[in-house]
Amino acid sequence: MQRSGSGWFETLLNNHTNVSSNGEIFSAKERRINASSIVSTLDRVYNLDWFTSASKNECSAAVGFKWMLNQGLMEHHKEIVEYFNTRGVSVIFLFRRNLLRRMVSVLANSYDRYAKLLNGTHKSHVHSHEEANALSRYKPVINSMSLVMDLKLMEKMVLEALEYFSSTRHIVLYYEDLIKNRTKLMDVQEFLGLPKMELTSRQIKIHKGSLSEHIKNWEDVDKILRGTTYESFLHTDYTN
């Protein structure tokens, strides 16, 4: 799902000498119009006919890309699962435990697409603390009336994705676990059959510290989530 740390995670993967992860290739709608266009695009990737700055040619032990759940993946899951299992494709699911933090990131990123806070330029990911601080100054207003339902819908999509792709060879990761325990990256490398390396990324986290510092109507949000199954989202803080 967007704003779940996938950009940061992909830079970590591409930091490995033997990994070529080619970005969000299905963001282009013409590549996901139907199952046939999806399969054609997948063939280009796994036949090694897809060339990007991430390509490492003969050094690649693992080749892939980043695929958002809302980019044709759920609609055509049957055909995709059949393709993955036939071609021996491994799946890494990356989710975020704190869906409220994800929501803040989504709203802030959406705002910056138009506001372009960094000298008239929109950036979804940053590489300096100055840029991170500039973007984090914007505090979105969260619709507190639909908040619980919005969180439930996010959870539902995650559960559906895991059910649809349960027959694939896959591993499930959470952003917060990667932040707290970097040995998780070793698990990923083992899953992909890679020689173990220390992986690094230049990306900087934008929204650090307490969520109360990043939501304009914090008191409304706090009141709505108190006593619900999502109350823990109010307090959990993960900072890298």
UniProtKB/TrEMBL annotation:
Tell me the ranges covered by the Sulfotransferase domain, including all copies.
1-199
Q: Is the Methyltransferase keyword given for this protein?
A: no
This protein's UniProt keywords: Transferase
- InterPro entries xrefs: Nod_factor_sulfotransferase, P-loop_NTPase, Sulfotransferase_dom
Q: Does the keyword Transferase apply?
A: yes
| Pfam families found in the cross-reference section | Sulfotransfer_1 (PF00685)
Give me the segments passing through the membrane: none
EC assignment: the record states 2.8.2.-
Q: Give start-end ranges for the coiled-coil region(s).
A: none
Do you know which PANTHER family this protein is assigned to? PROTEIN, PUTATIVE, EXPRESSED-RELATED (PTHR32175)
Q: Family assignment? A: Belongs to the sulfotransferase 1 family.
Report what the protein is called: Sulfotransferase
